[in-house]
Amino acid sequence: MNFWEWYDRNLLVAKQHDVPVYELDWLVLQQTPLDKLDLRLRSPNISLKITPETLISLERIWQKRLYERIPIQYLTGSVTWRNLELQVSPAVLIPRPETELIIDIVAENCQDKFYQQGIWTDLGTGSGALAIALAQHFPQAQIHAVDYSKAALEIAKINANRNRQQVKFHHGSWFEPLAKLNLENKLAGIVSNPPYIPSIEVLNLQPEVTNHEPHLALDGGTDGLDAIRELVNTAPEYLIAGGFWIIEMMSGQAEIVRSLLQTNGRYTNIQTLKDYAGIERFISANKKH
Ligand SMILES: C[S@@+](CC[C@H](N)C(=O)[O-])C[C@H]1O[C@@H](n2cnc3c(N)ncnc32)[C@H](O)[C@@H]1O
User: Fold this and answer.
1) Model-level pTM greater than 0.85?
2) 3-class DSSP assignment, residue 188
3) C-alpha dist (Å) from residue 27 to 36, 59, 149, 213, 238
4) Which of 89, 121, 148 maximizes ligand 1 atoms within 8 Å of its Cβ, making it the mutation to test the pocket?
5) Mutate which of 149, 228, 282 to test ligand 1's pocket (most atoms within 8 Å of Cβ)?
6) How many domains does the chain have?
7) 128 is a domain residue
8) Residues 207 and 276 placed together within one structural domain of the fold
9) For the ranges 45-59, 158-172, 204-218, 255-269, which has the lowest average pLDDT?
10) Which domain holds residue 204?
11) Is residue 7 domain-shared with residue 124, that is, in the same domain?
12) Are 25 and 39 in contact (CB under 8 A)?
């Protein structure tokens, strides 16, 4: 079988297995010398660039995608997120496209020097996506990133180096490492995409997620709000007056998180923001003066 026969057959197989067909292209682009133009032009000569060994390897990886439902990003070991190339492994959540919007919202709301030259933290950094993008957006800021998973922090460090960004990584639970650094009342901003899925729902997500992504990254406790409560309650101790706070949340959580922020009493300018699908996915606020 030549490359095109293999490719065409698997376009059909992908549809039959409910796997997006663009994942086949991602795999080929990652694992072979072919580029997007090669795939579009479909020149018969292109088959010559693919050795029989490469075809066997593509087939082996693709079988894992189809039958073991392993996310393609774990199989290829990388993902493009904003303009960043990030390494991923089953130790980290695969950063999602909608999470990119957190950086756009920060960029729009935090244009003063106060924010640009301030101290920021990304709580639950995973692959490091948000922390690294923040460092890129605010080259004069100091960025701290925290995670409870040591394995995730190893990947995040690799990603910061790979993307040439300065981020200080800390192991521990939420604000714990920041307390050790005496960062109370010093942060210009806090971003977080915390685990927010109710425990029982974590077991019933797509098999790609339930069986392969780290549950520490997904499971937000009985009602999904354990981490969010901690982030709402403790952040005012660490933010400077006027400091910016933003988190990602699940569809249906906006109203309760808004009321948690209001009841806390130390926040102002509370805003919910929608993702690409029109779902209220983010909530931001400033610490009161
Ligand atoms: C939804 S993932 C987000 C990862 C990354 N920020 C992103 O947006 O792709 C949540 C992250 O929170 C981390 N986490 C879970 N519990 C934590 C805790 N108690 N303290 C710090 N991080 C925690 C997980 O290890 C995971 O990396």
Assistant:
1) yes
2) strand
3) 12, 10, 28, 19, 43
4) 148
5) 149
6) 2
7) yes
8) yes
9) 45-59
10) 93-287
11) no
12) yes
